[in-house]
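Long-time lurker. I teach an intro course on protein structure, and each term I like to show students one example going from raw sequence to a predicted 3D structure in token notation. This year I'd like something fresh instead of my usual example. Would anyone be willing to generate the tokens for the chain below so I can use it in lecture? Attribution to the forum is fine with me.
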Amino acid sequence: MIDGLEIATLAPRVIHYLSQNLLKSLPLTPQEIAASIEHLLQGRSRQQAWNAPKAVITPPDGRYMMATLAAAEDPPFLAVKALLLNPENPGHGYHSINSLVTLLDSHTGLPLAILDGNWVTAVRTAGLSAVAAKRLARPDAAIAAFIGCGVQAQSHLQSFAALFPLKQIRAFGRGTVNRDALCRSAEQMGLMAVASQTAQEAVSDADLIITSVTLSPQLVPFLDARWLKPGAFVTMTDLAAPWLTESMSTFDRIIVDDLEQEANMPKPLVDPTLVDGDLTSLVTGSTSGRCAEDERTAFVFRGLALGDLAVAGLAYQRACECSQGTLIEA
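-- Reply from a regular --
Happy to contribute to a lecture. Here you go:
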């Protein structure tokens, strides 16, 4: 039992505020981010890290409101993220998604940091995909297709280019601005970039497929898993909403992020009979990864709170090491 005097001694004098620009400047590699997520997933299997199923509110006007909670013993942090997606935001000059992450000490509950949640979400989502791809994708994957070319596409490009011997990307999206920006990013990395005219053209011969289609009540599924070549891996950051339900049985292996979370959701991401396991079991080895070169595999996910904690905690530690961040009196 820590008495009041010891708590006062341990209490941080300040809270760190880590803005998006600052977070982007931190020296963090995709490999470090994936390793941080894997560390917490392994901790979860040993009852040293925990996450609650996400809480979701979906008003009838198309907004998506979500909160996540995760905690760990090592590192001793607790993270809470609140996020709101509003499809109307871009029309008003705002990002469609905005969020904030609060980091606390998991033993005392004392506040440590407030982080820009949009950066955490983008990096965490790409990190979760990377953890899955390391086990489900072919290691010689050279062509990546992006369906949806916004923030998530950019973060996945950076992550996958660091993990796979990419030579070419294919980009398909509703508008040309984000698509062209993604192509420029790829070209600056020395990759060939192709602006595809159709979604089928983009994915049909790709090794890696990343879908990040903006969710809206008007979205009609238009992606068909039967277009995929043998050996392809797909990561679906968009709840699999743009994929034709009847084509999902084409996959030889489907992994979700969290079976417990799925059991608490009113509508499953995918037919539960098609699911082989979740990310924790994949990382710990109790669920097999790719078993044959020609398997079509998929990672379908809502977002795992432990991923938010892994990224936020790593960013906070690195910011402290670099003496970065705006300090707020506690």
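Some talking points for your students: The first helix runs from residue 4 to 10. Residues 209 and 234 are 5 Å apart (CA to CA).
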